[in-house]
Amino acid sequence: MKLHENTAVVLSQLLAKKEVSAIEVTQSFLNRIGDLDPLLKAFVTLTPEFALKTAAEVDQKRINGKRLHPLAGVPIAIKDNICTEGIKTTCASRILSNYHPPFDATVVSSLKAIGMPLLGKTNMDEFAMGSSTENSAFFTSRNPWDPERVPGGSSGGSAVAVAAGMAPLALGSDTGGSVRQPASFCGLIGLRPTYGRVSRYGLIAFASSLDQIGPLALTAEDAALLLGAIAGYDRLDSTSLPEDVPDYSKELGAGIKGIRIGLIGENVDQQFDPEVNAAVKRKLTMLEQHGAVTGEVSLPLTDYGLGAYYLIAPSEASSNLGRYDGVRYGYKAESRHLEEMFSNTRGEGFGAEVKRRIMIGTYALSAGYYDAYYLKAMQVRTMIRRNYEKAFQSFDLILGAATPTPAFKIGEKSDDPLQMYLSDVCNINDALAGIPSISVPAGLHSSGLPMGMQISAPPSGEKLLLAAAHFLDGQKRGVPQRPQLEIGEGGSK
Amino acid sequence: MDYETVIGLEVHVELLTESKLFCSCPNRFAAEPNINTCPGCLGFPGILPQLNAAAVKKALTAALALNCEVALYSYFDRKNYFYPDISKGYQISQFHVPIGSNGYIDIKDDQGSTKRIRIGRVHMEEDAGKLVHSPAGDTSLVDYNRAGVPLIEVVTEPDLRSPGEAKYYLEKLKSILQYADVSDCKMEEGSLRCDANISLRPLGSDALGSKTELKNMNSFKAVERSLEYEIRRQRDILISGGEVVSQTRRWEENSQKTFAMRGKLQAHDYRCFVDPELAPIQLTAEEVEEARRNLPEQAEARAARFVKDYKLPGYDAAVLTVSRSLADYFEACLQAYDNPKTAANWIMGELMAKLNTAGIEVDRCSFTPASMAELLIMIDEGLISGKLAKEILDQSFSSGKSPRRIVVEENLVQISDHGELEKVIRQMIEKHPDSVENYRAGKTKALGFLVGQAMAETKGKANPQLVNELLLRALES
User: How many CA within 13 A on the CB side of residue B169?
Assistant: First the structure.
């Protein structure tokens, strides 16, 4: 087995036993990137020197007998909307195409402190607005299971990197499904933590009340390790939770006996791929057979989530993106006067989808429309949160499909924003409620593509989510399913 | 037809805090542009705001000092607009729920009776940066030193009826906020800024007429003048049958006139909504009560204390408490000097005259309370005369040198040595026998002449009282 085929936990063990060095591990992934990235286009920026330097430091520390974090020397890829000091952070936007942040995001500081080599920054939909990476200003990433298909988005590059063995772990961000949906499309574990569990400091804002950083991984065990490394209170983020971080890796094997699991009734009725519905039902049956108490749960406001989300997120985005005016940093267009500088900079710097959402949000917040749109959406959001609170009185976990279908073809939905928005329909309500939610593989579709299932828990219920996901991992016996990629010379297929 | 003037004021006040409202950059003036900035107040992507608890305390104190109801639960909104002096594309402000509301200030109106001016709201917000335009007019630069400085905005109801009342209100507001240690309220330095809304209506009418909003007044006097001008302008329009256009107007100090800036149609839609990056502000009833208990002494209470503790006449106490900085100066002076009435006389007389001439406030003056005490002690010790003391004050006021140092450096110590003075007096008596004779003949005026001669002989350094005494003794012996 090649080094890059291992999970993070296995790599961690190999490193701890000094069977391999961090340099070797890092180099293995860099080689894999060299082979595959020209085809799959997961990365916007590669940082091999930085990765190898970190790896060398970790190796030296290990030789010196220093106590190291289990993830020390395990490389990682990071979505390009998470600030890395001195390393280009573009949000896959022309407006930030040459932006080098003067500081690290809190999660990046945490990973640096542990000694995780940073392989590079991954492609995404511009400013995390999209579900396919087709909105990247640079290029579209390709799904390793079928390069003609999208990897999902917006954290598509991160998902591709992990699924194709170009990185054992990656960080994404999830505003309305941007970690879970690409995880589903690429056959991975994708975790959206409770809002506030992971610091947003240094995450370039799309919709601040919804944005959360989360791990993409091959297994629940890997995701648990990475979550433990990035979770925690951060005084730099006023919305971060002042709660202690439990050891997510401990008691992962607690099992699901006696856990009450509710299948979302409303999801099944929708126009989902029947194979997806069947796969979710199979998983539910399996959970039941192993001692879970299952039932159907009603979330009557499910249908309103998408509408509320596409008012709240664009409203916040219209404000968050106001700072890109060409005055202080980023792209600045040629202009004759101030108004023109603003409009040219933003006109040339932002892509179509970003502009669409800025316009929706500007409209929703405008005098005369605020009450009917933004305020109403906020009220719906509160009601959705109460829906969940009620549901969690009867169930410990809520289960449903992670995406209505497997990955779609590149170009298939890019001209139809509504169809594109609907691909996140399973993920949006959890985000509005601020609860943790995980996407886990649910088997392969007859087309050969992975399908995903989503499990949600009450606030700060990550431990239970990961235990359930770990249980499901165990049922697959052994290595996670991986795409079969043939690599020709020079990296092309 | 006779018209009534209706005025409401919106006053922005910078809070006296160590750091800015949402980052740890220093909240202080700097001449060098963009020196007090960080990625936070420059609006770099990824940075999140961290609320300065000290600023909330100051705002709470202000709200209580202005007799407001305090919102235990309030939060920040974003006011969105494009302009280079804001670094994030929005200003963080309290739009929906201000920390204080329904307050008031009592002022004296034009007739001298007490009038209550209602304060609709007191809310917190961050300041913007400053644009610097090149003289050629082809470039503009931005200085973000001020961006993110904590402000409160104090908004009155339309209760003011004349420019004079507006000025009284501003003076009272300034005094209250200074005494509350909320702000230094220096309009000339920009730590207090005032916009004025003004409209006219037929006398007896309850409806409000179309108003204009006046901006760019740099002193209380300018506020008063701009309102006076605007009353004339609006009255002329109304009398000639026209309609006042609702618009924002800019006061030009040079021409002493207001000019239209933008009309109502061009008014901004700020798309205010709650800032999702900040937690709400939650105060407890106990915190508010504690702040109320700890409210610093206001002018009236301090004046009463001055009368009681220092036995000052009521007039003196009122003058000395006109501003907190003057009252502080007086009390600081008493730390080293124990005759309150003498200190009061010198501060109200010599010092205030100097301050008025120089056009500066007492806390910016280099003649410190310690210097004042030193000066008064030297007079009491007989080291210098009162006349000399005034000259020393002049010097110290402009150079900042301590009075004692000036006296030593310039050898100004008063001659109080009996032997030395008697020698001088003997010389004078010998030199001016006529005067001596005149005095002995009952012409007391001659005494003054001889004292003057003795003073001149010693170049003014002789202790005049002692000269007087010794001369009398010599003449009558």
Answer: 30
Give the pLDDT means over successive 10-residue stretches in chain B (477 positions): 94 97 94 95 97 97 98 97 95 97 92 94 97 86 96 98 96 96 91 97 92 94 97 96 93 95 72 96 97 94 96 95 94 96 96 92 91 94 86 92 88 78 87 87 85 84 84 83
The CA-CA-CA angle for residues B202, B204, B206, to 5°, reads 85
Q: Is B137 on the interface with A (CB under 8 A)?
A: no
ipTM score of complex: 0.93
Asked whether the beta carbons of A298 and A265 are under 8 A apart, the reply is: yes
Predicted pLDDT of residue B26? 97
Report residue B280 as tokens: 């709400």
How many CB atoms are closer than 10 A to CB B387?
A: 11
Enumerate the β-bridge partners of residue A79: A122
A212-217 and A169-174 beta bridge pairing: antiparallel
* pLDDT of the residue at A308: 97
Question: Cβ distance A173 to A81 under 8 Å?
Answer: yes
Optimal mutation site among A319, A331, A379, interface B, most CBs of chain B within 10 A: A319
Nearest by CB to residue A105, choosing from B46, B50, B82, is B46
pTM comes to: 0.89
**What is the pLDDT, as a whole number, of residue B407?**
86
The pair of three-digit structure tokens given for residue B172, joined into one six-digit string: 């009272």
- List CB contacts (< 8 A) between B78 and chain A: 319
Tell me the pLDDT of chain A averaged across its residues: 94
* Rounded mean pLDDT, A441-449: 94
Owner of token pair 């993920």: A427
Q: Is B449 exposed, middle or buried (0-12, 13-18, 19+ CB in 10 A)?
A: middle
- pLDDT of A224 higher than 90: yes
Are the C-beta atoms of B88 and B46 separated by less than 8 Å?
Answer: no
- Tell me the pLDDT tens digit for each residue of A11-65: 999 999 999 999 999 999 999 999 999 999 999 999 999 999 999 999 999 999 9
Is the dihedral angle over the CA atoms A53, A55, A56, A58 positive or is it negative?
positive
Give domain limits for chain B. Answer: 3-286, 323-409, 418-475
Q: What CA–CA distance (Å, rounded) separates B331 from B315?
A: 17
d(CA B201, CA B243): 11
DSSP string, B405-471: HHHHHTT---B--HHHHHHHHHHHHHH-HHHHHHHHTT-THHHHHHHHHHHHHTTT-B-HHHHHHHH
Residue A266, token pair as written in the block:
């409303």
CATH fold label, A3-254+437-447+456-486: Amidase signature (AS) enzymes (3.90.1300)
What are the CA-CA distances from residue B146 to residues A383, B34, B35 (Å)? Answer: 41, 9, 10
Q: Which residues of B touch A208 (CB under 8 A)?
A: 276-277
Nearest CA-CA partner of B346 in B330, B323, B359: B330
Cα–Cα distance measured from residue A306 to residue A15, given in angstroms and rounded to the nearest whole number: 44
* Under 8 Å between Cβ of A9 and A225: yes
Which residues lie below 8 Å from residue A57, measured CB to CB, with a gap of 6+? A115
Q: With an 8 Å Cβ cutoff, are B48 and A99 in contact?
A: no
Q: Where are the domains of chain A?
A: 3-254+437-447+456-486
Longest CA pairwise span in chain A (Å): 71
pLDDT tens digits, one per residue of A146-185: 999 999 999 999 999 999 999 999 999 999 999 999 999 9
Q: Which fold has domain B418-475?
A: Arc Repressor Mutant, subunit A (1.10.10)
Q: Residue B284 to residues A360, B70, B72, B289, B294: CA-CA distances in angstroms?
A: 38, 10, 6, 9, 15
Cα angle value A134/A486/A178 (rounded, 5°) = 30
Whether A204 sits inside 8 A of B45 (CB atoms) is: yes
